[in-house]
Hints:
Seven copies of one chain form a homoheptamer. With 89 residues, chain A is mostly beta strands. Chain A has one domain (9-17, 33-88): Roll (10 Kd Chaperonin, Protein Cpn10, Chain O), CATH 2.30.33.40. Helices cover 7% and strands 43% of the residues of chain A. In chain A, strands 5-6-2-3-4-7 form a six-stranded antiparallel beta sheet, with no helix packed on it. In chain A, strand 5 (67-71) and strand 6 (74-80) form a beta hairpin. The termini of chain A are far apart. Chains in contact: A-B, A-G, B-C, C-D, D-E, E-F, F-G. The interface between C and D is medium-sized, with 19 and 22 residues.
Amino acid sequence: xKIQPLDDRVLVIPAGEExxxxxxxxxxxxxxxxxxxxxxxxVGNDEDLQELIKEGDVILYGKYxxxxxxxxxxxxxxxxxxxxxxxxS
Amino acid sequence: xKIQPLDDRVLVIPAGEExxxxxxxxxxxxxxxxxxxxxxxxVGNDEDLQELIKEGDVILYGKYxxxxxxxxxxxxxxxxxxxxxxxxS
Amino acid sequence: xKIQPLDDRVLVIPAGEExxxxxxxxxxxxxxxxxxxxxxxxVGNDEDLQELIKEGDVILYGKYxxxxxxxxxxxxxxxxxxxxxxxxS
Amino acid sequence: xKIQPLDDRVLVIPAGEExxxxxxxxxxxxxxxxxxxxxxxxVGNDEDLQELIKEGDVILYGKYxxxxxxxxxxxxxxxxxxxxxxxxS
Amino acid sequence: xKIQPLDDRVLVIPAGEExxxxxxxxxxxxxxxxxxxxxxxxVGNDEDLQELIKEGDVILYGKYxxxxxxxxxxxxxxxxxxxxxxxxS
Amino acid sequence: xKIQPLDDRVLVIPAGEExxxxxxxxxxxxxxxxxxxxxxxxVGNDEDLQELIKEGDVILYGKYxxxxxxxxxxxxxxxxxxxxxxxxS
Amino acid sequence: xKIQPLDDRVLVIPAGEExxxxxxxxxxxxxxxxxxxxxxxxVGNDEDLQELIKEGDVILYGKYxxxxxxxxxxxxxxxxxxxxxxxxS
Lengths: 89, 89, 89, 89, 89, 89, 89
């Protein structure tokens, strides 16, 4: 079974809050409202969205954006396109 | 007699709150604002909606979304398309 | 003299609050925000509305939706299309 | 001199609050938010409005809708089309 | 030098508050929210507006609508089209 | 270096608050919410805006409209088109 | 790895708050709500945006606009097009 987001939504696996990436992004967890980072697990059926975002993309989004969901031991977020600030490429 | 949702609304039979599915989705009821899961019982006449959602689909939606209704001993929710976060497929 | 709703409005005769229908719909009056049921007495001139709703249809709507009106000893509600959640068919 | 409403507005002469019509409409003044009744004295230049409402029509509108105006000893209301709930025909 | 309103705005010279016109309009100043009356001094460049309102028109508008301006000893109001309830013709 | 407003914005040099113009505009500073006056220093790239407002125009705008900016010893305001009430011509 | 803003967003490197430019812009940090200045590091995929703003442009934006992000020791802001007040050219 797969979680398929609708319309302009994406399913995201959030990065751990304390994480430091190889390329050096540090998103201090103490800061309020700083964007967070996650990996796209599934993309909704909206065509504009599908041109911008693919499965596997690493994206940044607002700290309080989206709805949380637990599935098979993994924590997900379901975000709308408008919640996505940037992608890392 | 049948409950036929209008426009972009769907009629949903919510899953029990304590439920654990075979595939392992656990939606802890203690968490605030976590999405809930239900089975679509009827789909409104909106064409875009009907392409995305069919009777029998299992969908996720916000915890406080929709209007409750009791019918023949079954509890239903009437959701708008915008309340649907994802479907499980 | 007849009450003719305008645009996308319908004139509805609400079902009694304590009513139990033959088909078994029970809408407990103690519950907050549960939808209520009524019979359509007249339909506005909006064409989309007229395809969806006919005089005589039984519809469900939000508990606090619409404007009340007394006429010839009958209590009515005037609802907008957006207030209608579903019809029973 | 004539009062000519603009756009989608109508000029209305409200019925007296205590009035009982021959056809039996009673709009109890003690009820809050019940619609009120008036006779259309002039119609704005909006074409959609002019198809729906004519001078002389008796209409129902929300109790607190519109702007009051006194003219030649008559009390008027200036309503927008959206304030009109139904017409009596 | 001339004050030229932009877009859908009109420049209005408000009538004195205590005024009684020859035709008998009395707008009692004690009433709250009653519309007021003024003479149009200039009309914005919006084409729809220019079909409805000409320089010299006497219009009615909400008591608290518009922005006040003093110019050469005259008090003006700058109103938007939506603030105009009716014109007297 | 030049400040170039974007879209439908204009860069304005506000007139001194105590100023009395040769043509006699007095905008008493004690009055609340009275419009203020300024000279347009630059116009955004929006085409509709550029037809209405040119560099050098004297415009009126709401007292609390816009964002302030200091540049080379001059105080500016950056206004949106909707903040402009009228121009003096 | 590169931060690529989505849609109508831009990635900006804010100027230091105490800075005085060669051309003399002083944006006193004590003033409330004064616009701030930054250099565009990346532009979203929106075509209208890309005509107005290029990488390297110096732009002004509201003091509280945007989302902060730290990357490789640099502080960034992610702004929407509507947050950009002007560019310096």
